[in-house]
Write a structure and sequence with these properties.
The two termini are 36 Å apart. Helix content is 35%, strand content 14%. A six-stranded parallel beta sheet has the order 3-2-1-14-13-12. The longest helix has 21 residues. The protein is α/β, with parallel strands linked by helices and 406 residues long.
Length: 406
């Protein structure tokens, strides 16, 4: 996958969302994969919800492995490639954990904690440190990689989705030990590439598991970019944030970067619509389908020009209304509407962008930093990461302005 500019999507079924695996429906997956193949979306990132795949520390569900193998077989049928993501983990504004990963605590948490059949209280254990939990993670990796060994539909593995939102490693050494242990476990069972899903907050502060640490052990680095979640952007829909974050990640890591997540929620065009009260409670803006289409059109060109490995949309589809009273859609209304496809499966305007741009080749660029970065040093970035990110962004925008004048 490192030789092409890949177009991909992050996938949860429209009618299942994060409850997919416990309500697996092969025919639904078949329909979705057939639809994606028709729109030139060849790469699909899927998520292995930790509680479903590993209900006990030393138990990997044989049923879930069967469902996963079935999913890979369906992907192969439509010549699609999968990137399974382990230990999910943080997802759409909530943290999803098996009960054995939670310890009692009365301390407030930033994100709702979902376990069993609902929101629960407690604190997530340090899964970067505890030996029994590290062993459990190695077990899951081994079982999954062996069950999918040599499968033609699997292109790479991802160690986790924004795991620093669940728990921040207490030291750089702890983060690196976790990465080494888990990447070793992947490589002992497959020859496929491995990465780890970092996001913009891993640049805004030093969470001991940023681009440099990931690059030491992973084959390529990724970034998740949403300007409307960031305080330092020029506006909530600033598309230039995407190539900027990708370029900064590459500069810090010294390795190729995949823009693994990006996208924007759109105003629903089919019922049910947002009520006036729900509009007031939105945690970020939502845009028209035409605006989101233009956002995707511009971003694909910019990311291609910036030399990214690819651009993977968040996400496949808007979620069905019967899920709206469940976590995380109950707490985060905007999460209902990020799809390239509507909740009835019909394509939004943005889906056509992927269909039209499906034959972009990779843009090869040299290993030198862009000219606007040459007065900065990567090893000094985390001395004051948020301030440096803001300075770098303004430097980048000035560079773009001067370039435009020429």
């Amino acid at each position: 996958m490192l030789n092409n500019f890949t177009l991909g999507v992050n996938y949860w079924p429209i009618n299942k969302a994060m409850y997919w695996w416990r309500n697996f429906d092969a025919q639904e997956v078949r329909r979705d994969f057939a639809r994606l193949s028709q729109y030139n979306i060849k790469y699909i990132r899927i998520f292995l919800t930790w509680e479903d795949f590993q209900p006990e520390a030393q138990v990997i569900s044989p049923l879930m492995l069967d469902y996963l193998k079935n999913t890979a077989d369906l992907a192969a049928t439509y010549k699609l490639k999968l990137m399974p993501t382990f230990f999910c983990g943080h997802m759409s504004g909530a943290n999803w954990m098996p009960k054995w990963m939670i310890e009692p605590s009365s301390a407030p948490s930033r994100f709702p904690l979902y376990s069993g059949n609902g929101i629960t209280k407690g604190q997530i254990k340090n899964f970067y440190k505890a030996e029994e939990i590290l062993a459990a993670q190695v077990l899951q990796i081994s079982k999954v990689c062996r069950s999918l060994k040599n499968h033609p539909a699997v292109c790479a593995y991802d160690l986790g989705n924004e795991s620093s939102n669940c728990y921040v490693p207490s030291s750089c050494a702890q983060g690196q030990n976790w990465l080494k242990l888990l990447t070793d476990a992947v490589r002992e069972n497959t020859n496929l590439p491995v990465t780890y899903g970092i996001h913009a907050e891993d640049l805004e502060e030093n969470r001991n598991i940023g681009p440099l640490e990931v690059a030491k052990y992973c084959d390529f680095v990724v970034m998740h970019a949403y300007p409307f979640y960031l305080s330092w952007t020029d506006n909530p829909f600033d598309v230039w944030v995407l190539p900027f974050l990708g370029t900064i990640t590459k500069w810090l890591a010294g390795k190729p970067v995949l823009l693994q997540e990006f996208g924007a929620p759109s105003i629903p065009t089919i019922p049910p619509y947002l009520s006036e009260e729900e509009k007031k409670q939105l945690k970020c803006p939502i845009w028209t389908e035409r605006e989101v289409k233009e956002y995707y059109t511009t971003s694909l060109s910019l990311l291609h020009e910036a030399g990214m490995l690819g651009a993977w949309a968040w996400c496949y589809g808007d979620y069905a209304p019967h899920l709206w009273n469940k976590t995380p859609l109950k707490q985060n209304y905007h999460e209902r509407y990020f799809g390239l496809f509507r909740s009835d499966g019909s394509p939004k305007l943005a889906a056509q962008v992927f269909k039209d741009r499906g034959k972009l080749g990779v843009k090869h660029i040299d290993g030198e930093s862009p000219t606007w970065l040459r007065d900065f040093k990567p090893d000094e970035f985390y001395f004051n990461p948020l301030k440096n990110l803001q300075i770098l962004y303004q430097t980048y925008k000035k560079y773009l302005q001067n370039k435009e004048k020429k």
